[in-house]
Amino acid sequence: MSGAGIALTQVLAAGGTLLAEGVSDGPSDGQDLNAVTVSPGLPGFIVMFLIAVALVLLVLDMSRRVRRITARERIEERHRLEEEERQAALDAQGGAEGASAEESARDRPEGEPGGGPSPRT
Q1: In 3D, which of 120, 116, 88 has the Cα closest to residue 102?
Q2: Closest Cα to residue 106, out of 118, 120, 117?
Q3: Distance (Å, rounded) from C-alpha 39 to C-alpha 26?
Q4: Rounded to an integer, what distance in angstroms lies between the CA atom of residue 105 and that of residue 112?
Q5: By the 8 A CB rule, do 115 and 106 touch?
Q6: What's the mean per-residue pLDDT of the chain?
Q7: For residue 19, what are the CA distances in angstroms to 15, 23, 24, 44, 47?
Q8: Residues in Cβ contact with 110 at an 8 Å cutoff, skipping those fewer than 6 apart
Q9: What's the rounded Cα separation, in Å, for the pair 37 and 18?
Q10: What b/e readout covers 37-54, taking b as 16+ CB neighbours within 10 angstroms?
């Protein structure tokens, strides 16, 4: 076992013995236990309030981070789609250039190099 594990075990054992020794039959001040004497009071309220504030701040931070991540994913997806469209347009333009070269050869007057169909005799 590591040194931290041994130290933790010793602390827990010491805490257990202190709790076992501290248990008595009744309250040490002789008062009865009721809602007023057992309530956490102002320190308990302050601690719970601080925990609640920390929880709200953590939730706000988490939601902000999740929104950023989803926005980045949408932007990356949009860029990817635009790149695919641009590539498809370039591919189509490359195919159209080959077809337009054939069309321009047919449009040239006869007799010019690369001109229209040769005369049939």
Answers
A1: 116
A2: 117
A3: 17
A4: 10
A5: no
A6: 76
A7: 6, 6, 10, 21, 23
A8: 116, 117, 118, 119
A9: 23
A10: eeeeeeeeeeeeeeeeee
Task: State the number of CA atoms in the 13 A half-sphere of 100 facing the CB.
Answer: 6
The residue written with tokens 């501290």 in the block is 22
Token look-up 């469209």 returns 85
Find the length of the chain: 121
Evaluate whether 104 touches 97 at the Cβ level (below 8 Å).
Answer: no
Residue with tokens 């999740």: 66
Q: Which residue has the higher pLDDT, 46 or 17?
A: 46
Tokens of 69: 């991540």
For the chain, domain boundaries: 39-98
In this prediction, residue 4 has a pLDDT band, given cuts at 50, 70 and 90, of low
Tokens of 37: 């004497």
